[in-house]
Amino acid sequence: MAGRNEVGMTISNTRLLLVAGLLALNGCVNRLGPGRVATEPALKTPTNVQKSQSDGREIPRNPRNPTAELGPLKSPRIVVKKAERKLFLYSDDKLVRTYPVGLGLSPVGDKVRQGDRRTPEGEFYVFTKNDHSAFYLSLGLSYPNAAHAERGLREGLITKGQYAAVMQALRAGTGPPQNTALGGDIYIHGNGSSSDWTWGCVALEDKDVRELFYAIPIGTPVRILP
């Protein structure tokens, strides 16, 4: 009888190990994904407060004070020049930082629809900050903007209801719908700027996005030029 119990325990233990191994493998796949693609996990409805979108905690300030050299910024704004692969950070009209960037896998031209892998062009603002990003740290941009929504409605990519929802969010300064045929989930984030590898985001080196992340507030205007 004792022998049977020992055999049963051995089989059970083996099954547990197999299940644990499969779960661990699945977790690894979920973390790595199907390649380096710039898609973020779904975020909660954003608000105009500087809080972590993952669990509502206040975003902690970096104890190493990454913005010490920048000093306080006055009316900060961001300009991205795609052709130069550069992001420029301004305090009022003073240029205070220039960072190299990587773009979408199809870097030339404005974003038109979901899956075209283009980095959008136009006027945006930072509507969310995610300190639990899959790409180190990230700043969510208010794509689609009014121009994209108007073109999408005109070309039949979105409905009148979706267009109205985009415009309402833009008027409120929150995040426009991210799941229409126009695409969404456009971020400034980390994980490297040495090549154009994202699905439409603007990628910086981790040390650069960390400095930028803590230097600017939600609502910061972002202009992306060809």
Structure, described:
It is a single chain. By secondary structure, the protein is of the alpha+beta class. It has two domains: 1-33; 40-225, L,D-transpeptidase catalytic domain-like, CATH 2.40.440. The chain has four helices and eight strands, in the order H-E-E-E-E-E-H-H-E-E-H-E. The protein has helices at residues 2-32, 146-154, 160-172, 206-215, and strands at residues 76-81, 86-91, 94-100, 122-133, 136-141, 187-189, 202-203, 221-225. It has an eight-stranded mixed sheet, covered by helices on one side. The radius of gyration is 21 Å and the shape is globular.
Query: Any idea what the CATH superfamily of the largest domain is called?
Result: L,D-transpeptidase catalytic domain-like
Class by SSE composition: alpha+beta
Side by side, the strands of the main sheet go 3-2-1-8-4-5-6-7
Sheet bearing the most strands, described? 8 strands, mixed
Q: Which architecture of the largest domain per CATH?
A: Beta Barrel
CATH topology of the largest domain: L,D-transpeptidase catalytic domain-like
The low-pLDDT segments are: 1-39, 41-61
Count of extended strands: 8
Shape: globular
Strand content: 15-25%
Structurally, the number of domains stands at: 2
Query: What's the total helix number?
Result: 4
**CATH class bucket of the largest domain:** Mainly Beta
Order of helices and strands: HEEEEEHHEEHE
Q: Considering DSSP H and I runs of 4 or more, what fraction of the residues is helical?
A: 25-40%
Distance between the termini: 77 Å
Chain-averaged pLDDT: 80
Radius of gyration using CA atoms only:
21 Å
